[in-house]
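FAQ

Q: What does a record look like?
A: Structure on top, sequence underneath. For example:
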């Protein structure tokens, strides 16, 4: 893929973004410019012992401030209970009804009448998912997929509901071959005869392409190749980012790479105006010995980071202007599902609504408002190389432009006066300033993310919800200092961290990659005065005129 071609497309998208709303915007962009913030929804599987009554289920969804759900069928009880709530719902045609609907227009019309028209608009049905992973799980039914979609659409048109309610069909990610690097991805050609008309339909009706994306399985199937951190959206040092050699786009997580691989696959079939909607993604919290990475910690990290990723609206490297909405798989652990063990452990909650784990999604709007959220902080890790720690502290308070005023002598976080505590404050200051962006809490491995508020006494860390006690005494207010008054010599911008990217030419950050060269930390390339928090006669360093 020619670089210049992509640049042209990207510029075009940018240009379109800047045009007034009534001009010929691509549907995808128009869609996100309107009311449509990207959202996080949740799948509701019902293979659960003592499944909640519809009324209790809806009360629970409201308590959790869940705004979007996907059902695997069109359960009348649940649809009725959802009436007059603001919860938006995708209903589904189960795979076993596909044949009937695909072979008879009247069956399709009856289905729409019974499951959509009967509830809408009291119940905010936003889409009908026709089957689930039909091409890969029931390939013999593939021939009826498009007929089913077309007749359901005709029935919606007849009921004049086709502008409010979209029709699409969720696909398995395995349709995409060679997903890494994303620019080389393409749909398995065996399915072109169905995908081409499908994409035409989606483009014509401005409907999303639904895909089920599981970085978990990508990780499991490519162990040793795909690092766990990339799969979990963990902050990465630039050297661990994946770089697409054709586009030179930097991928910090598998999820974005998967989405872009779908965009590239569509582009190979000449479709560039269809939005990707992630109808399933998640991480299991438990597995047997064959699935050691199915565990609570990873599930929590994945889903928490996923939610933050969506609400951050940062899009993907290919489409930074476009953030896909996602549906987490899934609300409840489905204890009745057959082995492997992980199958019964994808839920955020047990069937009785007890959380399986507490998500850490503070600052991500009101989703899962049941106080299952927590703020994250960046602090110095234990048992790390003191020299690197010192260099990182120097960097954070200097070129990193953290606000280090509170760790100056006499200020509230000066005590305890040691490198580790001061580094923690400086790292957290940097991390919060960067809005907890991926990669902003690493510092060559000497920093770590925590959910425990590191504030102590009157020392309030950046990002803490604790209210600063205005009346609290400063330890010594006679010594004044402020941010930016520490004296540092200039640093050299390092090249070595970007070894992976170096294959490219000087154009490597052309596509709005959010990598910030000037703000990366590399201790080997530090050439700055050390900031010695412990030295009593350090005042000289705080004199900006010196
Ligand atoms: C079903 O509806 C489609 C779309 O309106 C139409 O093209 C097709 O001829 C109909 N099939 C039958 C059997 O009526
Ligand atoms: C493409 O799909 C066909 C049909 O499902 C399958 O047999 C084939 O193995 C797939 N190709 C690859 C490379 O996975
Ligand atoms: C896509 O468009 C190009 C240029 O118009 C054409 O050469 C190519 O055959 C098209 N590909 C498909 C799959 O339609
Ligand atoms: C969720 O909220 C309900 C009602 O406010 C409360 O009873 C329950 O303890 C909360 N659960 C958690 C885990 O916070
Ligand atoms: C640095 O932090 C202090 C205390 O939190 C605050 O008063 C000051 O305004 C900050 N300075 C800058 C430049 O943000
Ligand atoms: C949030 O973090 C605090 C520690 O700062 C911890 O005590 C608390 O249990 C956490 N809350 C949740 C809901 O995870
Ligand atoms: C605030 O500071 C005052 C004076 O030091 C103290 O009496 C009070 O308990 C503090 N309040 C809190 C919430 O820490
Ligand atoms: C503040 O610092 C000055 C000079 O370093 C010292 O003389 C004074 O006792 C200190 N005051 C307090 C309250 O620690």
């Amino acid at each position: 893929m020619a670089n210049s071609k992509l640049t042209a497309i990207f510029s075009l998208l940018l240009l379109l973004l800047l045009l007034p709303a009534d001009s010929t915007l691509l549907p995808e962009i128009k869609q996100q410019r309107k009311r449509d913030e990207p959202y996080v929804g949740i799948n509701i599987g019902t293979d659960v012992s003592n499944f909640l009554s519809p009324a209790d289920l809806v009360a629970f969804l409201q308590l959790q401030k869940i705004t979007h759900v996907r059902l695997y069928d069109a359960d009348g009880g649940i649809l009725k209970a959802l009436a007059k709530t603001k919860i938006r719902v995708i209903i589904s045609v189960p795979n076993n009804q596909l044949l009937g609907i695909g072979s008879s227009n009247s069956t399709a019309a009856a289905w729409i009448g019974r499951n959509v028209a009967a509830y809408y608009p009291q119940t905010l049905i936003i889409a009908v998912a026709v089957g689930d992973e039909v091409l890969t799980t029931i390939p013999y039914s593939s021939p009826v997929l498009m007929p089913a979609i077309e007749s359901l659409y005709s029935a919606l048109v007849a009921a004049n509901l086709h502008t409010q309610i979209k029709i699409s069909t969720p696909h398995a990610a395995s349709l995409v071959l060679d997903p890494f690097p994303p620019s080389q991805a393409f749909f398995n050609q065996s399915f072109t005869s169905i995908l081409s008309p499908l994409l035409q339909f989606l483009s014509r009706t401005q409907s999303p392409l639904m895909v089920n994306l599981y970085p978990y399985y990508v990780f499991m199937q490519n162990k040793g190749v795909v690092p766990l951190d990339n799969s979990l959206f963990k902050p990465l040092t630039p050297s661990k980012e994946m770089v697409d050699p054709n586009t030179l786009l930097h991928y910090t997580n598998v999820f974005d790479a998967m989405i872009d691989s779908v965009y590239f696959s569509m582009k190979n079939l000449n479709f560039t105006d269809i939005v990707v909607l992630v109808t399933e993604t998640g991480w299991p919290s438990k597995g047997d010995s064959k699935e050691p990475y199915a565990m609570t910690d990873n599930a929590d990290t994945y889903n928490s980071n996923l939610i933050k990723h969506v609400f951050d609206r940062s899009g993907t490297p290919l489409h930074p202007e476009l953030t896909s909405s996602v549906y987490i798989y899934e609300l409840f652990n489905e204890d009745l599902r057959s082995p492997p063990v992980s199958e019964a452990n994808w839920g955020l909650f047990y069937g009785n609504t007890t959380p399986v784990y507490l998500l850490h999604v503070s600052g991500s709007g009101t989703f899962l408002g049941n106080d299952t959220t927590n703020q994250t902080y960046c602090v110095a890790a234990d048992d790390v190389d003191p020299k690197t720690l010192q260099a990182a502290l120097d960097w954070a308070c200097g070129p990193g432009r953290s606000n280090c005023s509170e760790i100056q002598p006499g200020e509230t976080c000066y005590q305890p006066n040691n490198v580790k505590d001061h580094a923690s404050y400086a790292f957290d200051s940097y991390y919060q300033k960067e809005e907890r962006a991926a990669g902003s809490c690493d510092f060559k491995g000497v920093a770590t993310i925590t959910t425990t508020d590191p504030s102590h006494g009157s020392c309030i860390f950046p990002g803490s919800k604790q209210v600063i006690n205005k009346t609290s005494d400063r330890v010594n207010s006679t010594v004044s200092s402020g941010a930016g008054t520490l004296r540092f010599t200039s640093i050299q911008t390092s090249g070595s961290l970007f070894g992976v990217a170096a294959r490219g030419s000087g154009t490597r950050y052309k596509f709005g990659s959010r990598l910030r060269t000037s703000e990366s930390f590399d201790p080997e390339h530090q050439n700055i005065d050390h900031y010695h928090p412990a030295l009593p006669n350090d005042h000289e360093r705080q004199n900006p005129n010196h």
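Q: Is there anything notable about this one?
A: The longest helix spans residues 142-158.
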